[in-house]
Design a protein that fits this description.
Elements lengths: L12 E4 L1 H18 L6 E6 L3 H8 L7 E8 L12 E4 L9 E9 L3 H11 L5 E9 L12 E5 L5 E2 L15 E3 L7
Parallel strand pairs: 2-3, 2-5, 5-6, 6-7
Antiparallel strand pairs: 1-9, 3-4, 8-9
Helix pairs in contact: 1-2
The structure holds inosinic acid and magnesium ion.
């Protein structure tokens, strides 16, 4: 991996700077608040990648929400999907009868979301939708569609703003990419 000076993230090129991310999340917050007006959606953040996005998103809501987290591991120490999803932290409260909004960091092949849709819809939520900060639409291998998308991005492996490479770089305030490294 051409990671260069990985400790500071300085060798990674910026794809989306923090100002652009903040502006888009403000818009998403307004749009979701309008759509769920009169209801209290139950947000399920997918750990760990979505935690920073979710924290910023809820602060841009003008409606009440409840939150929970589901911990999953879909990748090992690489940039290639293993295709396997392991639950590392289960939900704390029932989602039955709730308007559930899954909060994801990124849709890549779509397999994780497809798996989540199956698992969560079995618990009979009143509705089930997805907001994802990033969407690599060209990489989908299964027919999934997010209801709210922060940014469509090209086929590059990205880190920062919660997203990791081998558990590193989550703290970076921007979304950056590893030059020359495709996701496959
Ligand atoms: P999918 O199952 O292929 O859609 O992968 C979704 C999950 O893979 C995300 O929740 C991320 O944790 C991880 N992932 C996919 N692409 C990237 C990337 O470019 N950077 C960091 N993590 C990624
Ligand atoms: Mg990850």
């Amino acid at each position: 991996m051409p990671m260069g000076d990985t400790s500071a993230g300085s060798s990674l090129d910026v794809l989306l700077d923090s100002g652009k991310i903040a502006a888009r999340i403000r818009e998403l917050g307004e749009e979701i608040s309008r759509d769920y007006h009169g209801r209290t959606p139950h947000l399920v953040g997918i750990l760990k990648g979505a935690w920073i996005f979710m924290a910023d998103l809820v602060r841009n809501f003008s409606i009440d929400v409840t939150v929970d987290f589901l911990g999953i591991q879909s990748y090992g120490a690489g940039t290639t999907s293993s295709g396997e999803v392991k639950i590392t932290k289960d939900l704390d409260v029932s989602i039955a009868g709730r308007h559930v909004l899954i909060v994801e960091d990124i849709l890549d092949t779509g397999r994780t979301y497809q798996y989540l849709q199956g698992v969560l819809s079995a618990h009979q939520p009143k509705s089930l939708k997805l907001v994802t900060l990033l969407d690599k639409t060209s990489r989908h291998t299964v027919p999934v569609k997010a209801d709210y998308i922060g940014f469509q991005i090209p086929d590059v492996f990205v880190v920062g703003y919660g997203l990791d490479y081998d558990q590193k770089f989550r703290r970076l305030p921007d979304v950056r990419y590893l030059r020359g490294v495709a996701s496959v």
